[in-house]
Task: structure prediction
Amino acid sequence: MAHPHLPTTEAAVAAIREVAREFDRELVVTDDIGTDQVSRRESADAFTATDPDGSLPHEAFVELNGQPAVTVRLFADGDARVSVEDVEFHDVPRDSVPGFLRSVFGGLAYVQGRFFPVGEWLVVPLPGDETYKELILLNGLTPWLARSVRP
Result:
């Protein structure tokens, strides 16, 4: 299933706001605008605020309240890093972020344990056969993660 296209960071923030309203969550957004502010700009000259084409790159950091603890870092180049209870999902496409959050807040995300390789994984299924999995590191299961364990 194709996700609605979110051409800019601001469009992605608006889509996250909509998801937050659906699930009665408050959010805090921090914007970083300009080459001198964003974290992934290596092509611009030192002490410049714009890219060579004259555009201003825009990143945003979004914190959503409640359980599970969720943060989203939207990067200017079209991807995001989503953290759910300190489990980080890197390189999530910006267009997939609203569906990702709906799966987490809607109760579709779950923890799956394995004997080989040994470990527990947070699994977030999205509509259209898209699934994200990340290893839960040694810090263990938080209460929300423990409630989400499936055999």
